[in-house]
Amino acid sequence: MTPYFERFAVRAAAFSAVLMMSAGAAFAGEAVTADQILNALKPKSVTRGITVGPQTAQPVDAAAQAKQAALLDSVRNRKTRSLSLGEREQIAELAASKPKIDLEIQFDYNSAEISKGSMQAVQELGKALSDPNLKGSTFVVAGHTDGIGSDGFNQDLSERRADTIKRYLVEKYGLVGQDLVAVGYGKTKLKDAANPADPLNRRVQVVNMDTKTAASK
Q: Which CATH architecture has domain 25-215?
């Protein structure tokens, strides 16, 4: 490869990395750090009368905010399996515009036990969510599986895995349980729908549903 093409390849790789970070990137479980998670989940600065999402600023809609608050209040302290399909879809719709991060947290085969190789990623998540900059926020912890297997099996597995992450964060990092909403989506929201078996689909997505932390600064 010539020096010109080498420089071009490096610049292209760097540009791709920037794009991935700005969109709310997915990080490999072994490599993610608390700072990366914190930066992905930290709300943008908010000015009076304006709500800032991950990418764009929009006028505050009081009715929409009230609806969001009511939904979150209705699912706090609820068992993950008790959430209806409609509630899961409402949460997903709200989460679409919120700060989020996808973590490739692996579990033992057909199990909700966190694999040893992914334990560090979960610990980094615990450190990030304990940071004062995120104090007062409500987080959705969403479990996702790949596309292999039946709908029912994957739905149950994703719920149990989301519960495992929530329980770990509460027990090991003292996070408040009612501020963590665990939800399972099974194989209904594949990250790479063209490749259902891709490990990229097996992930835990964490979403910061509350922007009051930034608004109160």
A: 2-Layer Sandwich (3.30)
